[in-house]
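Let us work through a complete example step by step.
Step 1: write down the sequence.
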Amino acid sequence: MKKAFAYLMSIGAALIMFACEKQSIVGNAEAESLLLEKLYQEIDSLAALHACEDRGEWRFTAIGEKACGGPAGYIAYAAESDTAAFLNKVATYTTFQRTYNKKWNVVSDCMFVVAPNRVVCEDGKPKLVWDDQLMGK
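Step 2: predict the structure and record it as tokens.
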């Protein structure tokens, strides 16, 4: 429990630094792209804090936004985690990516990213699953 609290405190500090960095680099697409990558890595690290042993304890959410609109992808997270903080960080990332896409006139493939049907556990890690019959196969 102490480790989880310490980790969440470090995430809070990282968010403050992220906000300060974001303000100081306005106008630099490469630096903003690096911040997006860093924030995604933080989100991915949070999701990986819990071992996947029971698929019923896992959820998924959309993350990011394509330039044409719609989610860039999906990410699994443990229901036992601080879901409010996790989903807030995902929302921050998505908003930042939407702003980045508009600001820098990003172009994407505009393909709709279908939501997965479920999460399964493989080797202690969550894996998103798309059922073939729902994908037109």
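Step 3: interpret the result. Residues 5-10, 20-25 have pLDDT under 50 and may be disordered.
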